Amino acid sequence: MAFEQDGIKQVEVEELKELVKNNVKDPVIIDVREIEEYEEAHIPGLPLIPMQTIPMVMDQLDKEQAYVFVCRSGSRSQNVALYLQNQGFQNVQNYYGGMLAWDGEVSSGPEWIVKDVKELKA
């Protein structure tokens, strides 16, 4: 059951599994961990935009688009959601518990490291 923390909707594991399984485009689900963490294990099909690069690409993201952010424990992704909310993004969500809580399928390697935010609209 979804809940809010600090004004950010928290998505739980079963809800995220449904979003991934149904290959939804709205919300866009983004992994914000470091490249090494992502390459070790990530949810298949999710793009990576490391947390420290978010301020540099923020202007290329659509403020009207819904986003769910994923990290290792749910802390960095919560901070990304809070940051973007403070920048005027209306529909940002956090995957509560992060990869530590994920018990679904994982992939390894550099599947989708975002070089250009336009890739997210494909």
UniProtKB/TrEMBL annotation:
<dbReference type="InterPro" id="IPR001763">
    <property type="entry name" value="Rhodanese-like_dom"/>
</dbReference>
<dbReference type="InterPro" id="IPR050229">
    <property type="entry name" value="GlpE_sulfurtransferase"/>
</dbReference>
<dbReference type="Pfam" id="PF00581">
    <property type="entry name" value="Rhodanese"/>
</dbReference>
<protein>
    <recommendedName>
        <fullName>Rhodanese domain-containing protein</fullName>
    </recommendedName>
</protein>
<feature type="domain" description="Rhodanese">
    <location>
        <begin position="23"/>
        <end position="108"/>
    </location>
</feature>
<dbReference type="InterPro" id="IPR036873">
    <property type="entry name" value="Rhodanese-like_dom_sf"/>
</dbReference>
